[in-house]
Specification:
The chain is an all-alpha fold and 163 residues long. It has a domain of 102 residues. It has 5 helices and no strands. It is rod-shaped, with a radius of gyration of 29 Å.
């Protein structure tokens, strides 16, 4: 007797075929969702990099302004630190703001996490992508904050120096 004519075989084969097809479609939809998440995360990361690339060239300007304000502070302290106490305090705040903006950029660059590649996802120790979109959104928000911090400290220094 052929197995294919056996009703139990047909029931058994049909049942496992149905399970296999169901699992395959679940894996496919999970893969599609994961791919969509990775694509969205990559877009957010790219937007963050655009912001970074926009403000990174201003790092030299920040350093120049910081150096100039510090030199003027040193000159005023030699002349009369008591008479210029308020101005010196304002200058110190500006120098500190420029330094903090510089530090914020350096920290953002050190801590930024890219979107994993397909190779990284298929490695024996795959990267966790559970919160990848959230991570990229946080990084984008952080670089936007750094941009605002840099721009405001630059403008503050330029206003003091009448540039």
């Amino acid at each position: 007797m052929y197995l294919s004519h056996n009703p139990m075989y047909r029931l058994f084969f049909g049942f496992f075929s149905l399970i296999f097809i169901s699992l395959s479609s679940c894996q496919s939809s999970t893969t599609t969702e994961a791919d969509a998440n990775l694509t969205q995360a990559q877009e957010i990361y790219d937007e963050a990099i655009v912001v970074h690339d926009e403000v990174m060239p201003r790092m030299d300007e920040m350093m120049r302004l910081r150096r100039t304000v510090q030199q003027q502070m040193d000159s005023l302290q030699q002349v009369d630190s008591v008479a210029y106490a308020d101005t010196l305090q304002q200058m110190q705040t500006i120098v500190q703001n420029l330094k903090e903006a510089d530090d914020a950029m350096m920290q953002w660059m050190r801590n930024t996490v890219g979107v994993p590649t397909q190779e990284e996802l298929q490695s024996p120790d795959p990267v966790d992508t559970t919160n990848i979109i959230q991570v990229q959104q946080q990084q984008k928000a952080a670089i936007e904050q750094v941009k605002q911090q840099m721009e405001s400290s630059i403008e503050e220094a330029k206003a003091l120096l009448n540039e």
